[in-house]
Specification:
The structure holds two protein chains of two kinds.
Chain A (H helix, E strand, L loop, with lengths): L49 H12 L22 H7 L2 H4 L11 H18 L3 E3 L5 H18 L7 E5 L5 H8 L3 E5 L9 H4 L7 E7 L11 H10 L3 E6 L11 H4 L3 E4 L19 E3 L11 E5 L2 E5 L21 H37 L15 E4 L10 H10 L6 E2 L8 E4 L7 H20 L1 H5 L12 H6 L5 H11 L1
Chain B lengths: L9 H11 L29 H12 L6 E2 L13 H6 L2 H4 L11 H18 L3 E2 L6 H15 L5 E5 L4 H14 L2 E5 L1 E2 L2 E2 L1 H9 L3 E8 L12 H7 L3 E6 L10 H4 L3 E5 L15 E5 L12 E5 L5 E5 L6 H4 L12 H39 L4 E2 L8 E5 L3 H10 L2 E2 L2 E3 L3 E5 L6 H9 L2
Parallel strand pairs in B: 1-15, 3-4, 3-7, 7-8, 8-9
Antiparallel strand pairs in B: 2-10, 5-6, 9-10, 11-12, 13-14, 14-17, 16-17
Helix pairs in contact in B: 5-12, 6-7, 12-14
Classes of the chains: A alpha/beta, B alpha/beta.
Pfam families (chain B): GDC-P
Protein name (chain B): Glycine dehydrogenase (Decarboxylating)
Organism (chain B): Prevotella multiformis DSM 16608
Chain lengths: ~500, ~425
């Protein structure tokens, strides 16, 4: 990473008359677009030569920090290594150059990939079948909740309009429930950080569509009462939903299907190594138990005697639970292909080592740092854990300050101020990709920062010092929104 | 343990276990009830070496046919400059997270600001967000935004000329979200303004969704549509093919309140359906109703012009159960793809691509109809895609596929939806015509 801000916008490098493209001569004769259909003015897009464009985006990239640059202990995000072979396979023309509406007999290889990973994910999670259509984790949550709602509606059980969500849940859970038209009921956590079964019991009734859980939860703790919770939810007629954001530590250790979950979503960009790409594209497959298979969204890939086929929606005037469509085609295919490559690279045996090693790394960091950082719940964690800021709070150095100081030392910050259960939450997830050497280096740095907080607190409070930019003015951005280059120019002109 | 993705030696593991104070890796799961511990084997193949993986996918790839593509339906085979995949593979872009830590994410934040700026230019709208999953779900988000924008009205109208998969997604989202969704009839392949007026004036309409070019490739005339909507406080929502907007009258010019669509047409690989990205734009007035991520300008503690994720109070992770959308990411890397595409093609190249596609499609249409074996279904202006009727549709389709050509998308029993881009040569087009 370059520690000096590059800072240009492509529009500022543009000169009329320059071009960065070449196209073959138009040999089709001129067919004029009717004037009534034509835009009045051209879109003001940049005009640059090719090298200017290449340098511009290369320079942008150098102000970015990725997993390939250094350690990314970002809690709940599972920033593991993104294997390069995944990129090679997903750029093969035999996969990139397929139109989604090609006849099935011309895309048997692509359908085989989809079918095989449906089966692989079903086996890894203990579910009966999987849809790959959801484009992201949040989209998977929404799809899963639609499946739950469809199941109840199909049975005529229409008063189930509530979904239970723990107070420690990711913010997406209640938001997905709201979009699905469900009312959220919050269940409290115990002081030990687990779902409070006694608080749960009175919430259960014939108006409950289901309950959403993350296991291990957002504190990195395994919800050990899960068999009892599953029984309680099922006894009241509800279904149990598994948020797969934290599946990584369970590889080789436990499966959501065996715990009693009816519907799950996975984040291929977390557990299955596909790159985060600065915020997407992701992929959020959804798995279901046997009785929910009819409610999987369409299209869906199946295996027949004649080869692989696509079950599609029937075209009906009325809405039908069997014809839910949640996207254009069969999901983010090239992301799915990357995840399949990862699964094949690890294979049956090594994939089982992922969970224990991710868990080992997290517990090791926790044990090594709990003398300097406040550990509110001191127990075995899974893939991640949460500190409640520095132990010594007398200096006024906050979690935000520690996070920013880490940037100076070449680390990405942990997830901060989440979960909301602790004021100074700092959530650390190392993943299995990191070696003991890297982790020891991080631990040493965290001790150094704690020492700095005691001895030279201003140094930490004013961090970062060695990044391309200093702390940003969030308030200004929201109070006076400048969201396009046109607005930026207009704003500069009105200031003059 | 000995795998290239797993760095731990046995010695490392032992030292770490000792520090934690447990005996073995199994002990890390001591609290997991025995009844739910997984003790079996996953139904997966053994680990493959990199050479074996290459061979495996090579073989799988051979089961696909690469066809000369005349299919569209929302996904178009446009030319992609070689610069793009090269820049996209830079791991600072590829392997970074959502740019929450602005200090080490200015690369991402700058290009998203550029993306928003270019998409706003292209659509003629005031602002754009940082991108959506893809076009169909972006349209559903627009439907929900209209629903929430209205205090009383709960109905959203959509034109029957929307693509089938968009209608499917709208129906699903509407059902669960409590939106009453109603079709507006088409006449001669275009949305009936008459019918639209009648339904809007009946009241209770929060928004109206149309598509440009529509499901048949036709360029619709939306004159008066925005007024019809605005008279009754309904939002006018236009879904467009991004690349065509280099020439076409923009959603902004049609008076749209929200503009949505897919950016696949900006040179993105067809990739058997994804990843693509959607775009979503609005007027300044609706800025705070726009779902998804937005990047804005600000300054840092050193007085530099910098960019940051902003207006986050709108977003689901803050609003939780009060959220009106659960979108909590964008499709950054695909937005970067489109941004570099628009930088490379630039102001002139974007127009040239659109015009050449337009000319090539009209050339093919002339050639096909001249044989008198194919007839244009609707006599309306079209862009680079058109619907023909042919008696021997299936025989022609199969013959084309046998000759390595995907001649279009089958519609009904005897129709074919054909799309042409600047990537098709005259020889390819003439070959296709020769098969008829």
């Amino acid at each position: 990473m370059n520690n000096k801000l590059y800072g240009n916008l492509i529009f500022e490098l543009s000169h009329p008359g320059r071009r960065a493209y070449s196209l073959p001569e138009n040999r089709f004769g001129h067919h004029p677009l009717p004037d009534a259909c034509r835009r009045a003015k051209d879109a003001e897009l940049p005009e640059c030569d090719e090298m200017t464009v290449v340098r511009h985006y290369t320079n942008h990239s150098e102000n970015n920090f990725g997993v390939d640059n250094g350690f990314y202990p970002l809690g709940s995000c599972t920033m593991k290594y993104n294997p390069v072979i995944n990129e090679e396979i997903s750029s093969l023309k035999a996969f990139t150059d397929l139109h989604p509406q090609q006849p099935v007999e011309t895309v048997q290889g692509a359908l085989e990939v989809e079918y095989n990973i449906q089966r692989a994910l079903a086996s890894i999670t203990g579910m009966a079948d999987v849809t790959l259509n959801p484009y992201a984790g949040a989209h998977g949550e929404l799809t899963g909740l639609m499946i739950i709602t469809s199941y109840h509606q199909q049975r005529g059980d229409t008063k189930r309009t509530k979904v239970i969500v723990p107070d420690s849940a990711h913010g997406t859970n209640p938001a997905s429930a709201a979009v699905c038209g469900l009312e959220v009921v919050e269940v409290k956590s115990t002081p030990e950080g687990l779902v409070d079964v006694n608080d749960l019991r009175p919430l259960l009734g014939d108006d409950i569509a289901g309950m959403m859980m993350t296991n291990p939860n957002t504190l990195g703790l395994f919800e050990k009462d899960i068999p009892e919770i599953a029984k309680l939810v099922h006894d009241c007629g509800g279904l149990l939903y598994y948020d797969g954001a934290n599946l990584n530590p369970l590889l080789g250790a436990a499966r959501p299907g065996d715990m009693g979950f009816d519907v799950i979503h996975l984040n291929l960009h977390k557990t299955f190594s596909t790159p985060h790409g600065g915020g997407g594209p992701g992929s959020g497959p959804v798995g279901v138990c046997e009785k929910l298979i009819p409610f999987l969204p369409k299209p869906h890939v199946i295996k027949t005697k004649e080869g692989f086929a696509i079950e599609d929606c029937r075209l009906t005037e009325e809405y039908s639970t069997a014809d839910n469509r949640i996207g254009g085609y069969l999901g983010n295919f090239l992301i799915i292909l990357r995840a399949y490559t990862y699964i094949l690279s690890l294979g049956r045996n090594h994939i089982k080592e992922v969970g224990p090693l991710a868990t080992l790394n997290a517990n090791y960091i926790k044990e090594c740092l709990k003398d300097d950082y406040e550990l509110p719940i001191d127990t075995l964690c899974k893939h991640e854990f949460v500190f409640d800021g520095l132990k010594d709070k007398s200096t006024g150095v906050t979690t935000m300050d520690v996070a920013k100081r880490l940037l100076d030392y070449g680390y990405h910050a942990p997830t901060i101020y989440f979960p909301l259960l602790f004021h100074e939450a700092m959530m650390i997830e190392p993943t299995e990709s990191e070696s003991k050497d890297t982790i020891d280096g991080f631990i040493k740095t965290m001790h150094v920062i704690a020492k700095e907080a005691r001895e030279t607190p201003e140094l930490v409070k004013e961090a970062p010092h060695s990044t391309p930019i200093g702390r940003v003015d969030d308030v200004l951005a929201a109070k006076h929104p400048i969201l396009t280059y046109r607005q930026l120019i207009h704003d500069m002109e009105s200031e003059e | 343990m000995n795998h290239k993705f797993l760095p731990h030696t046995n010695e490392d593991i032992q030292q770490m276990l000792d520090r934690i104070g447990i005996k073995d890796l199994n002990g890390l799961y001591a609290e997991v009830p025995e009844s739910i511990r997984f003790k079996g084997d996953y139904d997966l193949p053994e680990a493959m070496s990199e050479l074996e993986i290459r061979a495996f996918f090579e073989k799988l790839g051979q089961k696909n046919s690469l066809l000369t593509c005349f299919a569209g339906g929302g996904v178009y085979d446009h030319y992609a400059p070689s610069v793009i995949p090269n820049l996209l593979s830079r791991s600072e872009f590829l392997t970074s997270y959502t740019p929450y830590q602005a200090e080490i994410s200015q690369g991402t934040l700058h290009y998203i600001f550029e993306f928003q700026s270019m998409i706003a230019e292209l659509t003629g709208m005031d602002i754009a967000n940082a991108s959506m999953y893809e076009g169909t779900t972006a349209t559903a988000e627009a439907m929900m935004a209209a629903f929430h924008n209205s205090k009383k009205a709960d109905t959203v109208l959509y034109s029957e000329t929307l693509s089938e998969n968009i209608i499917g997604v709208l129906k699903t989202y509407a059902h669960f979200h409590g939106v009453t969704l109603r079709p507006v009839k088409a006449e001669e392949g275009v949305t009936s303004h008459e019918e639209l007026k009648k339904q809007v004036e009946a009241g209770g309409v929060a928004g109206v969704i149309v598509q440009q070019p529509n499901r048949y490739g036709i360029i619709e005339d939306f004159t008066g549509f925005a007024d019809t909507c605005h008279d009754k406080k309904a939002l006018f929502i236009v879904n467009s093919v991004a690349s065509d907007l280099a020439l076409l009258k923009t959603p902004g010019e049609w008076g749209a309140d929200l503009a949505v669509g897919d950016i696949q047409s900006l040179g993105l690989p067809m990739a058997f359906g994804g990843p693509y990205a959607g775009y979503m734009c609005s007027t300044e007035k609706l800025m705070r109703k726009l779902p998804g991520r937005i990047v804005g300008k600000t300054c840092d503690s050193r007085g530099q012009r910098v960019f940051v994720l902003t207006l986050q109070a709108r977003e689901q992770h803050i609003r939780r159960q009060k959220a009106t959308s659960n979108i909590c990411s964008n499709q950054s890397l695909m937005a970067l793809y489109a941004t570099i595409y628009m930088s490379i093609m630039g102001k002139e190249g974007m127009k040239e691509v659109a015009q050449t596609s337009y000319d090539a499609a009209h050339y093919l249409c002339e050639q096909l109809t001249a044989t008198e074996k194919a007839k244009l279904v609707y006599d309306k202006p079209f862009f680079n895609e058109f619907l023909v009727q042919m008696k021997e549709r299936d025989a022609f389709f199969d013959k084309a596929v046998r000759n390595g050509i995907l001649p279009g998308i089958k519609v009904d029993d005897d129709r074919l939806l054909i799309a042409v881009t600047e990537k098709r040569t005259k020889e390819e087009i003439d070959t296709l015509v020769g098969l008829l």
